[in-house]
Amino acid sequence: MKYGHETVVEGKFEEVIDRTKAALAERGFGVLTEIDVAATLKKKIGAEMEPYVILGACNPTFAHEALQREPDLGLLLPCNVVVMQKAGKTYVKAIDAGAMLGVTGNTELVGVAGEVDALLKETLNALKG
Predict the structure, then answer these.
(1) Rounded to 5 degrees, what angle do the CA atoms 61, 63, 64 make?
(2) I need a surface site. Which of 3, 83, 93, 94 has the fewest CB within 10 A?
């Protein structure tokens, strides 16, 4: 099952993170969390891996609407956006909001999921050029 969207982005890793945050903000998302997975794993267990950062993005308007329809939805929020390097390329990946919200089985979330997913895809498209 496909559960995300991705694009390859040119630029230095830290710059791509900054550009990703800016592109999300332009579409109404705030970044609530930033987890440097590579640094955390190195510190905790000495594991080496390529740069990998998870941004927890939330659009408050859509989050509020969705939580009104599905109070337990907080278990799935925020929307994760990953900036990672693999084989010399930097990828930005975003959760497929439809797949994420689909696990609830609540058909009232279909519209919200579609709108959020469109904004996340727009974010990835903006980073391409």
Answers:
(1) 70
(2) 3
